[in-house]
Batch of 2 targets.
Target 1
Amino acid sequence: MPTINQTLNASMLRDRCWTPHPDRAPGGTKYISIFRNGRGDTVALDLGSGSRNAIWAPAHVVPGSLAPAIDRDFYPADRPRNSNLNVPELKGKPLMRLFPSSLAEARDLLEHFAEL
């Protein structure tokens, strides 16, 4: 059975609101899949995070009203991170790693990011 992030990855590849990051292969690697919304904001699905279903996003696009409800980690710009996140929009930037607990919660989160 696919993980939440594997399910999201497949649906985002078909969704017109998202385009695969031009520096990465569509569908991602075994570890990370990176997408851009219509404004160019970048979101990464951590396909290697297992049941944690981590979603990475620039800290400035994470909604304050939604973030407290979702388990998360803040990554300041100088904190080490996965080398698979090495794209200009994420490298050396403050990030938020979010851990939605259900597919519905993850879809709501990505819907917010798509509408920015």
Target 2
Amino acid sequence: MKILSIGDFDPCGVTIEHRDALRALGFDYRMLVRATHRARANDADWIWQVKGDPVELFDFARDADVVQFHPGIGDQWSWRPGRLPLFDADTDTWLGDDKWPTTRWTDHVEGVKVYYFHGSINAWNNLEDYARRYRHEVVWASTIDYASRLGCPLAPPIIAAPPGTAPLRSADDPLVVVHAPTAPKICATEGFLATCRSLGVLSLVAQNMSHEETLQLKLKANVGFDHLRGCFSINTLENAAIGLVPLVGLNPEWLPALGEMPAPPTEHIQSLEDLRDVLDFLDDRPDWTAQLQMEAHSWYHLHWHPAAILRMRRLYEGL
């Protein structure tokens, strides 16, 4: 099966990890991005007007069995609240070229078209409009909140092997909590920091860092806090893969989107008060922290990772 992924950029490396995992299963999966925001993305097959032969790209696009777009993701407009949706801004219209008579990719590809939502502030605020726009299309989502609200399958992220495993907390170790917010205003960052200060818990915040630097910072912690938005993100998966206790606020109404996939082994928190209670509990219990670290590490590597690869294979073959 030939798959071409087209995106403004690759948010959190979701596409490139799917590509590598499915290539290992024999899929001919290739990806095109307009821009790159992390070093890993430079391994994309095509970077528009930077890397790769455009003739080869167009030929592959025409022959692809599946062409996958990523609505709602793009520079500037996508993360600014209050903006109207820019439909197709990162699917069809940014790739104008004189080799094709129009700038719309969908006029020229014959394969099954998939619209894969990873989400953004703008997309979330206008999700009903996006749902109407793509109501007759094949839609997938990378998180349980989007999958639930769009009524579409969860196409789960896959995390590459981390650079190491966080050491288990010992009896003499302080509780160290790491937080790596993509957008602090919607990740409860201010409240998280205030909570840690009130408890005297050591907090590490990864901001304005490369992904590689963020991973190294996470290896210094034993707990990782994601956010309180009702779903788990790449951060929770990464925290578990590294061997941190994953803390994230989950909305029980969105968990059915997981289907047969295992839910993260997180403590049940939905508010800053819940977060405070959990951190206060763990602060005095190094042995319990270490046990939860081991459970999280096992959950990702023995359960989530193989289940995510199997889910993605079934989704593409089911097309």
